[in-house]
Amino acid sequence: MEIFKCLYINLLLTFMLSAVLAIDPYSEALLSLRSELVDSDNSLHDWVVPSGGNLTGKSYACSWIGIKCNKDSTIVTSIDLSMKKLGGLMSGKQFSIFTKLTDLNLSHNLFSGQLPAEIFNLTSLRSLDISRNNFSGHFPGGIPSLQNLVVLDAFSNSFSGQLPAELSQLQYLKVLNLAGSYFKGSIPSEYSSFRSLEFLHLAGNSLTGSIPPELGSLKTVTHMEIGYNFYQGFIPSQLGNMSQLQYLDIAGANLSGTIPKQLSNLTSLQSLFLFRNQLTGSIPSEFSKITPLSDLDLSDNFLSGSIPESFSELKNLRLLSLMYNDMSGSVPEGIAQLPSLETLLIWNNRFSGSLPQSLGRNSKLKWVDVSTNNFIGSIPPDICVSGVLFKLILFSNKFTGGLSSISNCSSLVRLRLEDNSFSGEIPLRFSHLPGISYVDLSRNNFVRGIPSDIFQATQLEYFNVSYNLQLGGIIPTQVWSLPLLQNFSASLCGISGYLPPFESCKSISVIDLDRNNLSGIIPNSVSKCQALEKIKLSNNNLTGHIPEELASISILAVVDLSNNKFNGPIPAKFGSSSSLQLFNVSFNNISGSIPTGESFKLMDSSAFVGNSELCGAPLRPCPDSVGILGSKGTWNWKLTRIVLLSVGLLIILLGLAFGTLYYRRGVKSQWKMVPFVGLPQFTANDVLISFNATKPTEVPSPSPLVTKAVLPTGITVLVKKIEWEARSIKDVSEFIMRLGNARHKNLIRLLGFCHNQHQVYLLYDYLPSGNLAEKIGMKWDWAAKFRTVVGIARGLCFLHHHCYPAIPHGDLKSSNIVFDENMEPHLAEFGFKNLLKLSKGSSPTTTKWETEFNEITKEELCMDVYKFGEIILEILTGGRLRNAAASIHSKPWEVLLREIYNENEVSSASSLQEIKLVLEVAMLCTRSRSKDRPSMEDALKVLSGLKGLEDGRTSKEGQ
Questions:
Q1: Which residue has the higher pLDDT, 602 or 564?
Q2: Is the dihedral of CA 372, 375, 377, 381 positive or negative?
Q3: Furthest-apart CA atoms within the chain: distance in Å
Q4: Torsion of CA 114, 118, 123, 129, to 10 degrees
Q5: Catalytic residues
């Protein structure tokens, strides 16, 4: 007994000593929590316990970052770890001690894995915020234990499975945000039983089924966002019973049917967003009863009919967006009377008539876009009277008259009036337009030249007045000095005079002055334009030599100086250019030899014809390169000609003899070689021997056979074999010629083809650096990704807009994008799908077929654009989003953008802006309706910063 007594005393003393020295349970639990977290920024640096015991009875944790306690600092009541860049998995075992905790905020971090169900033991919680993390798996059961919960914010995570129906048991819940995850199934009908709910956000998941009509019984809800999902069916008319509703967003939700007029009973509604659905019918005129309505966006649907006259009663309407529908009629005069109207977006419909002449007089208009309709008449005289109009987009209508109403509109940033019938002089006073960045006045009837004060528009980036046939005037002398100017286009305008000196032209990338009356020389100062990529001066009266300084611009890709009076040689320095894609000097007085650089091997003879003293490939050989005795000077030229003629005659006679022999034997097995520029001359037999001895390689391709071959000159080529029918030879050959003449920096070169009556072998450049499919999952920097996206866009743009007729790629995918040794992307397989069709004899020649073919081609071009958008998503996500274009439109923009940012390591604000821009282009290119997608030309302009995204068409203002 004595032994047990001593043992007991020792144990008691040990326990008492430990109790004195132990830290308090709250601090201990939080330190345990910290040990599970990844804190790369050391955000919780002050979560430490000083040496010694806790003699005060207070909790050390009460002085730590993110921790709040009661007045005595003895009980932890709030934990706020938001925006600390914390990560890791939480076990949740520490939460049992926090019985008095009322607020837990873990938002804006990097937590992942399952949300610990132990959180639901915090029965005093009133607010639980776990938003903007990466919690995944099913939402854990047990949340009804939090009977005091008022706010549950789980926005932007990766939860899956069904929405938790048991949430409806939380009778005090006011805020429920489960948006931006991967919840599936239907919205539980139990959600209609919430007693206190005011905010319901379920958008951007993978929800299906019908929207429960029972939601109409939610009398306390003021804000409901349930769009960006995949519902079936209609908008329930019962939603009109949500009497307190102020904000309703069911955009991008696959809804069909008409807009129920019962929604007009939502007399407290301020914002209604139903865009990007498949809604039909007309807009209910009863909407005029919703007098508080300030934002109405019904765009991107199939709505018909006209704008209700009763909309004149919506005195609080700020945004009216009806773009991308099938609406018609005129714009009611009452729209112009709305005192709060700021944004009017009704483009891409069938509206007609004149715009209300009082538009802008009664409200502070900021953004007007009525493009691509059938409007006539003039610009309303007071459209800019409020002084805040910054976007005026009227292109592709039938407007007439002048621009006096906007001559002093100093707030303008973007002005697009192209493709109308405006006339008179251009009255814009650029000295009074401090913020103007984009001006397109092309395809109108303006006269009296470009305003001379354009050089004062210091923010101007894009200026286009092309196809104003009677514009006349001269190029203003200081235009190249504009610090941000990237594109200056004024082709076919009757402009005369000289090219101004190129002073301070640091940003200009495109100069297009084709088909004018310019004279004089190209100033040597053009060398200062080091950002210049394209200069087009064809069909003018320019003279002098082509300046050597032009060849010093390292990124110059397109030079068109054709149909002028240039003389002298082509600067040899052009031969070493690695960026040059097109160099056209046809029909001048150029002399000397054509440079022999790689870029010139890609060019057709049409780029050099019309210069009688110009020689060299692809034209006739230069005299000093004649090989038969002439190089030594021992024979005169006349004798050489006689020898050449004799040899030529002998060759002809031999050819006739052999031809007769082959004809007698039959021509079915005869092979012919058709080389394009860039492939040295040799025979079909050389080609056949080269690749017949080579084993086929495993290259992803729709073609029956792909072979790598080494030709007699040492060139390695990729050879594709197709079989054709005799009746299709002519059509197939012509189409192959079109493909071979399609030469661009971002297209793989078709070097030539070898054929007989049954088979064709196509010879392509062999690029050994792999394809995009192989590299897409690897780690590569953002600059390389962006360069790849832009390169693909340039190649497609060339096929779609610079080949006549256009060539659809037809099979655009990551495995058909190959890289050269500089990691420049090249499109492979372009046109091959149609080539295979032609080879099987599917080539009707009737007029009906030509009409159908044009329609098919348009659809194929649109599909190219869609596939381009999908490839962008693959690149942005390292292959995670493959063939997922249809689903990304259901995700809220903020969620999607954050995910993309996280998947791409960037180190600068400019890179973040580029990522956002590229993602926006992907979203535009993958829109479900083909007519809603941009052209590749427009997509490339957006990527190059030359075109605004409102013209690429985002749906909701502010997004």
A1: 564
A2: negative
A3: 136
A4: -30
A5: 811
